[in-house]
Automatic annotation (TrEMBL):
Record protein name field: GDP-fucose protein O-fucosyltransferase 2
Keyword list, A-Z: Carbohydrate metabolism, Endoplasmic reticulum, Fucose metabolism, Transferase
Subcellular location as annotated: Endoplasmic reticulum
InterPro entries in the cross-refs: GDP-Fuc_O-FucTrfase, OFUT2-like
Record-linked PANTHER family: GDP-FUCOSE PROTEIN O-FUCOSYLTRANSFERASE 2
Keyword Endoplasmic reticulum belongs to the record: yes
Sequence similarity: Belongs to the glycosyltransferase 68 family.
Cellular component per GO, a single term: endoplasmic reticulum
Any GO MF annotation of the entry: peptide-O-fucosyltransferase activity
Source species: Compsopogon caeruleus
BP GO terms, sorted: fucose metabolic process
Pathway listed: Protein modification; protein glycosylation
Amino acid sequence: SEGTWPQSPKGEGVADLINTEGLLPSRGSEAPILPASPSSSHVRTFGELSGIRYVYYDYWLGQFNNQLAALAQAMTLARIFTPNATLVLPPVKLGVESLTQFQKGREAGSEPLVFRIAGDLLDVDEIKKVLPVVQFDEFQSTTEGRRLSSSHLCVFDERFPTTPNTSKMIYENTYKLTKIETFDWKIDGNYCIKYDDRYIREAINCGQTKDALLLPKTFGGMTANCTDSFPALRKSLVHLIPRKELRRSVDQLFREIEAPVLGVHIRLINDAVRNCMKTEGGPAIVIKWMQDQFGSLFDQSRSIYVAFNPTDSDLVDIFQDMKNNFGSSKRVISCKDMVNCGHTRAPWAEELNINEYEFIFRNPYSSSLMDMWALASSDEFIGTRGSTFTTNVHRWRKLGTPELRYGGNENDRNYTRKDMCICNCGTTQNVH
């Protein structure tokens, strides 16, 4: 209601979720949002949105880490603007690289598996600490799910150049919503949070069903200062962590290797980088670039954890060169040296039957999540510029989630990224 902050399930008001500088952008003569007392005339409330009970979001813009970023955005938007809503969680859409890894060793013609982004991959109990959620495959079989599947709902039909799937297509094909109407919308919000209460009101006013909201593609908010600007986004990211079995595997590895640990994520971000690397001398030149730029980190480390796509032969060659260069004085390892990621099954995982074990540790993204958690847990980290995989690792490190052995702090404004830019990210100059 007017003059009061909508309350979240945790009992915190919207004022707790937006910082003192009003980072939802000011609109002309309107005052920015301020964490003032509820009686302040400068406080903009969202009480009229409290009737929204369900929020869907367009999650599809690339591979898993893009989908992780989309989930963080959707959680943040729902948390701020629709405090009484439950977020409907979609399945995971497999990207080309992950699908290639996953299909290796599977029988030809085998049925495709559907993975839930929360529960199968991420810790759903952690996500529920932020807001209520429901799995789409369960929700669609309920009375409410069936009602909404044939309800008149509206969405801005957003399209990105990198994917042919518009938001309307996602809602029709993934969520099985049959009566979708589109409307025009100009995105002019803050980069960190693309959609705000203006969009929500427009979408609700357009549709005949007033208790469900469809969000367009929610990917965004990847710059470093977004978690500083939006505490609600920070809260979402702190609780977007791998499921406990994956974290436990990483923790076991880190108890066995010698610290300090340097984590390195290697990716040839585009064809120009790949071609430049081969022209300039192959894997050896990549090792030289890393040493020239980050020599002190390599010198100080006792173990080096390397994350890379094991189906990419060029990256496999770089990893092997790293072992050849540093292996005499340090332990150079990858996910395959970790229990449950490689061939070794941890004793504590013996309690899982074979189907449970395969589903947890042999799904398309389990190794990627263990890689990310290992890099986030390392004492130092070097990423690949332009990679959302690297960005999500940096954000975990910056937030310093409690289980990480890395001593990060969510209030640490001095955290600096360390990213490599092989072949100047694909330009003609071979500099960082």
